[in-house]
Amino acid sequence: MSLERFINQAVSSWMSEEGPDSDIVLSSRIRLARNFENYKFPTLFSHEEAQSIILKMEEILRESNFTKFGQMELLKIDDIQPLQKRVLVEKHLISPNLAEDSPYGAVLLTENEEVSIMINEEDHIRIQCLFPGLQLTEALEAANEVDDWLESHIHFGFDEKHGYLTSCPTNVGTGLRASVMMHLPGLMLTQQINRIIPAINQLGLVVRGIYGEGSEALGNIFQISNQITLGKSEEDICRDLKGVVSQLISQERSAREALRKTSNIQLEDRVFRSYGVLSNCRIIETKEAAKCLSDVRLGIDMGYIDHLPKNILNELMILTQPGFLQQYAGGHLRANERDIRRAALIRERIKMESDKR
Amino acid sequence: MICQECNQRPAALHFTKIINGEKTEVNLCEKCAQEKGEMFMINGGSGFTFNNLLAGLLNIDPTVQKQNQNTFHQEEVLQCNKCSMTFPQFIKVGRFGCAHCYETFKEQLPPVLRRLHSGNWSHSGKIPKRIGGSIHLKKQVENLKNELKELIQQEEFEKAAKIRDEIRTLEKELPSSSKGGE
Ligand SMILES: [Zn+2]
Ligand SMILES: [Zn+2]
């Protein structure tokens, strides 16, 4: 398969489309956790209960025509090939938990992959909406519509005091997890991030790099999400998160401007060195690829590089994950083979854009 | 301890995973953890070390521990009659067994929930439509009353009067039993 066709098939809308503030915000995600009334939670439920939940979901899908977000398809985890599962994880459409440990799991997907509904993960139902750029309100609205649709067919566990009852007490209440993925190279380079993260944590929000709080983020990408799900309304949770994200955006923008003023040539050098690595490497590990992609993306945002599309970072961060690399290669790859394939894919992708000019 | 993934390097990361109520110890070297980490990173990392974290968090909570001991001293351990989860079990696993557990453990939950949700222990978000209008109204009245208090504090009396009228109108719609004492 040609790279171009592969990419067109592999890339979901949140990766390819540009959303508001997409120079800094890669994506916005809303997740709602819901559970069937009178069924045990997935940690304890029986084989029969698990099956009947899937059957009920299939029935709802057959009998009601909810097509607001496009046609939906239900996939049972057991029927999906391991490699395909991994690709779904890498696309953020299912969780690693569902892929690895849920024999009775399933996922409902819309065509454009904006909406996915995980079934029998930690909770019976997890509605997820993933939008490009900063679109928390839009994503919440979409998730609410999906929730209303399901609620008209299912009695979800709910009580007046605790709200939506979830398997884990950290999700009870709204069942809402709102997260925003941000690219913050300016705050990293100016070393402000270490000061900012603790401040954000104090506001009841969680910041994650690759290994969680405080540690190095792969490719300068951070995910910021709410920690509290109880005692605040869905709108308040999103508004608070959005407030912090907006502040981060403006701080990141001023950091970039400061860098341009104080160390323009050093920054340009860094960007083009990374560009050089990406367009010439023959072996590259995830970590180095992520670092270089972050530099190049910054170079695009700051106008040093003008022949590459903005979304190349999102796209290549996803496409160079093990699942995608193996799918593109058409078979299993060992770690060192993946490093070679990763280098080739990145080179080809950059060449593809250069050829377009 | 040797890494369970590559069986070569010494394990640097240790954590517990809980799947279907069963606990598994996971020991990985940094390199393998990083490879796994790729997967966890892109999915936000939730569910990875979380069980462990929660159990730890709840166990160090002195109020919970105390209640925990109290429960042990009682003749019967508090247990959910729908799913058989006991309170000590819940603290250990960090997961409820079913929705009814919330009812079973309702006396024990406020300190746990407060700790996890910055002092909050009661829901003020979305309500399913089928639960009906009266809860909606009650919540709406509650919210308006809070707003009223704030407006009075800020001496915004004109706005406050408007809110007060709104509350009166809404309260007329409430069934008399659920008006709540004041
Ligand atoms: Zn290892
Ligand atoms: Zn129970």
TrEMBL record, chain B:
GO-annotated molecular function: cadmium ion binding; cobalt ion binding; copper ion binding; kinase activity; zinc ion binding
Name of the protein described by the UniProt record: Protein arginine kinase activator
Transferase keyword on record: yes
Residues in coiled coil: 134-173
Keyword check for Transferase: yes
Domain UVR residues, every copy: 138-173
Biological process per Gene Ontology, one example term: stress response to copper ion
Organism (species): Neobacillus niacini
Pfam families: UVR
InterPro entries: UVR_dom, UVR_dom_sf, YacH
Keywords, in A-Z order: Coiled coil, Kinase, Transferase
